[in-house]
């Protein structure tokens, strides 16, 4: 709800502060005092465009600021969260129009675009002015009205959950079908690549190991020559090293018991002799089995050449990368083989979810159709109450074959103002105060069931008086039990139903006439309503009538 409205330098308003209250807020006052100008200023908060013509004084900016409390407005709270705007329980919206005509908008001191402001404001305030259908012509709102009266919220939530699952399954199916098309195009190519790699039958690190072996074979003659020389030096030369160490150890052997260190040196010499004998034997064995193998070199060269071609072809660097590619190709081919089964399973799932969803949608359709006559009759009765005896509402609920997020229905409210039997969509109807009264009648039916923003009516009383005006006041007061209602009126019957009565007036201040607004106390309310009944100087009878209207 709106808790505070501050306006400065707007039209004929120098500076005004209005503290709106819960319930029904009525605004009355002198003709030309600025009542409707208040609505114009509030329109800036709601995102209306403005120019320098709104400036009272052209040497300073115009500022309109509104404070809102958001204790139960879940939609507005979610909007602030989704748009990274601060929310501390109170919301402040400010519009500024500079002398140059530049307009700026702020939400809790954060600059915002005008479109974002409009979206947020639509969740906070529903302003009804002459020729302004606003939310009433919104088919989404019309559906909410039907659903609120039908009371099938759980059924609708169950359906929407199923609908989301159906959409998700459809999307998965489309992706899989698209993937199958791609697989069909690429399957032969994948199979060729896989067969080419499978034919080579590479082992892990094979090419790297073959390269090492090739290096060894390429240098086999030099290696064998070196092995022969080393073996000769160790065992077959005139002074073989192994034999020489054995002789050295033998010379020291008689003296082992004379000194511990001699004993340790002899032991080390014996160990060295044994190790060298083993090395010599290993070299001899290696030499005997080592040699140039031209056939093996050819096999290795052929294998490496085949491998390097595949490495270059696939942009790989190692044998293991080729093996990983082979595994990936195998998975793709396997997936290609299994995709038909997956598609078949998903098609069954999609059809099953659609069948269940359509069944729930038909139940919702039936529930809505049950409300059609009820809302038509209820609204028509209320329209008679508010001075529109010839007006009728028609609810058009069509059933479609395709599912949508809200079921299978397209809902539209049609309106006939004069029993012409020609019903037109409300969004195309423009009949001033009648539309505001129609909205009042509809919203009064669902105020307890739908989260509604603050309702503001500017001249809802156009063309009515007497009992019809009284009934408008009665409905507005009942509606204001659940939501905040603000209305500008010229009818005493409506003003008498106010919880809070604001009076707009002009005041002389030096050479200037300024617009002011204040809350009337009980006695002032009686006097103001009596003036609306009987003129500037109300009679005793008018005062008594005012008290009766206020039920005092």
From TrEMBL:
* Keywords recorded for this protein, A-Z: ATP-binding, Coiled coil, DNA damage, DNA repair, Nucleotide-binding
Q: What does this protein do?
A: May be involved in recombinational repair of damaged DNA.
| Organism expressing this protein natively | Arachidicoccus soli
Domain RecF/RecN/SMC N-terminal, residue spans: 2-509
Q: What is this protein called?
A: DNA repair protein RecN
According to its UniProt record, which protein family does this protein belong to? Belongs to the RecN family.
Which InterPro entries does the record cross-reference, listed alphabetically?
Answer: DNA_recomb/repair_RecN, P-loop_NTPase, RecF/RecN/SMC_N
Gene Ontology BP annotations: DNA recombination; DNA repair; SOS response
Instruction: Identify the taxonomic lineage of the organism of origin.
Output: Bacteria, Pseudomonadati, Bacteroidota, Chitinophagia, Chitinophagales
Keyword match Nucleotide-binding: yes
PANTHER family, per database record? DNA REPAIR PROTEIN RECN
Per the record, the coiled-coil ranges are 262-296
Picking any one GO molecular function of the record gives: ATP binding
Return the GO cellular component terms, semicolon-separated.
Answer: bacterial nucleoid
Q: Please name the Pfam families in this protein's record.
A: SMC_N (PF02463)
């Amino acid at each position: 709800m709106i808790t505070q409205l501050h306006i400065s330098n707007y039209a004929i308003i120098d500076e005004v502060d209005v503290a709106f209250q819960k319930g029904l807020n009525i605004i009355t006052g002198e003709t030309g005092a600025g009542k409707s100008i208040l609505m114009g200023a509030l329109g800036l908060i709601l995102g209306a465009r403005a120019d320098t013509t709104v400036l009272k004084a052209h040497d300073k900016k115009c500022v309109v600021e509104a404070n809102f409390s958001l204790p139960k407005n879940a939609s507005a709270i979610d909007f602030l969260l989704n748009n990274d705007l601060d929310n501390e329980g109170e919301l402040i919206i400010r519009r500024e129009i500079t002398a140059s005509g530049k307009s700026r908008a702020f939400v809790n001191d954060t600059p915002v675009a005008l479109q974002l402001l409009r979206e947020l404001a639509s969740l906070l305030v529903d302003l009804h002015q002459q020729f302004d259908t606003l939310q009433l012509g919104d088919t989404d709102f019309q559906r909410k009205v039907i659903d609120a009266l039908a009371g099938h919220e759980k059924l609708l939530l169950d359906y929407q959950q199923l609908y989301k699952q159906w959409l998700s399954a459809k999307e998965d199916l489309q992706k899989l079908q698209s993937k199958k098309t791609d697989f069909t195009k690429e399957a032969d190519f994948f199979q060729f690549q896989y067969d080419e790699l499978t034919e080579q039958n590479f082992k892990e690190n094979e090419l790297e190991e073959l390269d090492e072996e090739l290096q060894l074979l390429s240098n086999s003659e030099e290696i064998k020559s070196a092995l022969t020389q080393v073996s000769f030096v160790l065992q077959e030369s005139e002074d073989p090293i192994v034999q020489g160490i054995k002789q050295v150890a033998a010379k020291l052997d008689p003296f082992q018991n004379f000194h511990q260190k001699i004993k340790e040196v002899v032991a080390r010499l014996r160990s060295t002799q044994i190790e060298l004998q083993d090395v010599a034997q290993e070299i001899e064995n290696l030499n005997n089995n080592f040699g140039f193998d031209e056939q093996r070199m050819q096999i290795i060269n052929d294998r490496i050449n085949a491998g390097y071609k595949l490495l270059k072809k696939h942009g790989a660097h190692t044998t293991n990368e080729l093996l990983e590619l082979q595994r990936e190709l195998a998975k793709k081919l396997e997936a290609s083989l299994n995709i038909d089964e997956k598609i078949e399973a998903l098609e069954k799932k999609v059809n099953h979810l659609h069948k269940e969803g359509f069944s729930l949608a038909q139940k919702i359709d039936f529930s809505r159709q049950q409300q059609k006559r009820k809302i038509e009759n209820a609204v028509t009765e209320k329209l008679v109450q508010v001075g529109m005896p010839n007006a009728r509402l028609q609810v058009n609920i069509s059933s479609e074959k395709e599912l949508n997020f809200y079921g299978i229905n397209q809902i539209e409210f049609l309106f006939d103002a004069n029993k012409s039997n020609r019903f037109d969509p409300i969004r195309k109807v423009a009949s001033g105060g009648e539309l505001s009264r129609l909205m009042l009648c509809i919203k009064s039916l669902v105020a307890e069931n739908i989260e509604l923003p603050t309702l503001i009516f500017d001249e809802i009383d156009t063309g009515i008086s007497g009992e019809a005006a009284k009934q408008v006041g009665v409905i507005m007061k009942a509606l204001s039990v659940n939501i905040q209602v603000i209305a500008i009126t010229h009818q005493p019957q409506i003003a008498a139903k106010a919880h809070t009565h604001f009076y707009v007036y002009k005041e002389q201040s030096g050479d200037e006439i300024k617009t002011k607004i204040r809350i009337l106390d009980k006695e002032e309310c009686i006097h103001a309503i009596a003036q609306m009944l009987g003129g500037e100087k109300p009679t005793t009878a008018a005062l008594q009538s005012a008290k009766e209207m206020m039920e005092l």
